[in-house]
UniProtKB/TrEMBL annotation:
<dbReference type="InterPro" id="IPR010982">
    <property type="entry name" value="Lambda_DNA-bd_dom_sf"/>
</dbReference>
<dbReference type="InterPro" id="IPR028082">
    <property type="entry name" value="Peripla_BP_I"/>
</dbReference>
<protein>
    <submittedName>
        <fullName>LacI family transcriptional regulator</fullName>
    </submittedName>
</protein>
<dbReference type="GO" id="GO:0000976">
    <property type="term" value="F:transcription cis-regulatory region binding"/>
</dbReference>
<keyword id="KW-0805">Transcription regulation</keyword>
<feature type="domain" description="HTH lacI-type">
    <location>
        <begin position="1"/>
        <end position="55"/>
    </location>
</feature>
<keyword id="KW-0804">Transcription</keyword>
<dbReference type="Pfam" id="PF00356">
    <property type="entry name" value="LacI"/>
</dbReference>
<dbReference type="InterPro" id="IPR001761">
    <property type="entry name" value="Peripla_BP/Lac1_sug-bd_dom"/>
</dbReference>
<dbReference type="Pfam" id="PF00532">
    <property type="entry name" value="Peripla_BP_1"/>
</dbReference>
<dbReference type="GO" id="GO:0003700">
    <property type="term" value="F:DNA-binding transcription factor activity"/>
</dbReference>
<dbReference type="InterPro" id="IPR000843">
    <property type="entry name" value="HTH_LacI"/>
</dbReference>
<keyword id="KW-0678">Repressor</keyword>
<keyword id="KW-0238">DNA-binding</keyword>
Length: 347
């Protein structure tokens, strides 16, 4: 009898059933009716906590990994991270248990405790967007890895993150190699390192990478439009605003959704991509493939990030005592996905 059986028979999610049976229903505002239903079902079915997992006779481990995401993990880009983690777990002889906190710190803490209660060999704490996070104390009760995140305060848990600094350099090189040496504008962040959305590691590192290459190549960035949110609407508004003062030759959009909005503003102004203005983005969001011409973008390797997090965690589980020799930050390369949105500047 498993926790999933109890959840199905009770008509609730596995996460809800877990929280009820670990005594956290009230603090997380699970209804009394749902709590009674789960407890009654568990008693009728003879479910006992911990019975679903038995340690392997040779290793003393459960061969399971807990994966806790701050967003719905079954769809979109987060789903790619989960699939990467699941594939790597399978290759290494582990099972992956997935929980979703919805960004609620109390739920996140409860899920970490639930994973530990069920003797998961290690826990991966994943963020949808690369950012600084507050790490629950319970994470340090065993092997743990931060995925797509860095801790606000010092922690023993290593981080697996995309190489955003190199991504910024790659984006700048695409424009420099196409011949752009003037008329370059940034949409989403800058000009200063602090002119970025709150807690955004990606924005800071992309900006620094861009600066490295543009400065070395002698390219002057004419303007930078900081956007508090990286949405198509903000990209549209920022591009319209900069065109009141400048005629851009190239736009570096800090994500693909901003680039989508920029495309609309350029089209309304009668400017073509890339004939009049070159545009490059970041993330390789699905929207990039629907843009015409297809957007040139620097891809977030979600599948590879998930797989790398599992590999780091498995190494911690199978080789305890080597923490001092392991790097605290593991950077995963971000490849350029060529589209048709960058061309040489008009002279």
């Amino acid at each position: 009898m498993t926790l999933a059986d109890v959840a199905a028979a009770s008509g609730v999610s596995v996460t809800t059933a877990s929280l009820v049976l670990t005594g956290r229903a009230r603090e997380l505002r699970i209804s009394e009716a749902a709590e009674r239903r789960v407890r009654s079902t568990a008693q009728e079915l003879g479910y006992r906590r911990g019975s679903a997992l038995t340690a392997g006779p040779r290793t003393g481990r459960s061969q399971t990994i807990g994966f806790i995401s701050d967003a719905v993990a079954s769809s979109g880009l987060t789903g790619d991270m989960v699939r990467g983690a699941a594939d790597a777990a399978y290759r290494n002889g582990f099972m992956l248990f997935v929980g979703e906190s919805g960004g609620d710190p109390a739920v996140e803490r409860a899920l970490v405790e639930a994973m530990r209660d069920r003797r998961a060999d290690g826990v991966i704490l994943a963020a949808t967007h690369t950012r600084a996070v507050v790490v629950p104390d319970t994470v340090h009760d065993g092997p743990a890895v931060l995925l797509n995140a860095a801790a606000w305060t010092r922690t023993r848990a290593p981080s697996v993150v995309p190489d955003e600094l190199q991504a910024g350099r790659s984006a700048a090189r695409v424009l420099v190699e196409a011949g752009h040496d003037s008329g370059v504008h940034l949409v989403g962040a800058g000009p200063g390192a602090y002119d970025v959305p709150p807690n955004s590691i990606a924005a800071v590192e992309r900006l620094l990478g861009l600066r490295d290459v543009f400065t070395a190549a002698g390219v002057e960035v004419v303007s930078a439009q900081r956007c508090p949110k990286w949405t198509p609407e903000c990209g549209y508004d920022a591009t319209r605003d900069l065109m009141r003062r400048h005629r851009p030759k190239a736009l570096v959009c800090f994500n693909d959704r901003l680039a989508f909005g920029a495309y609309q503003a350029l089209a309304e102004a009668g400017l073509s991509v890339p004939g009049d203005v070159s545009v490059i983005g970041f993330d390789d969001h699905p929207i990039a493939s629907w843009m015409r011409p297809r957007l040139t973008t620097v891809a977030l390797p979600h599948h590879e990030l998930g797989a790398k997090a599992v590999e780091v965690l498995v190494d911690m589980v199978e080789r305890p005592g080597h923490d001092a020799r392991r790097p605290l930050v593991h950077r995963v390369p971000m490849p350029v996905r060529e589209g048709g949105s960058v061309a040489g500047p008009q002279r």
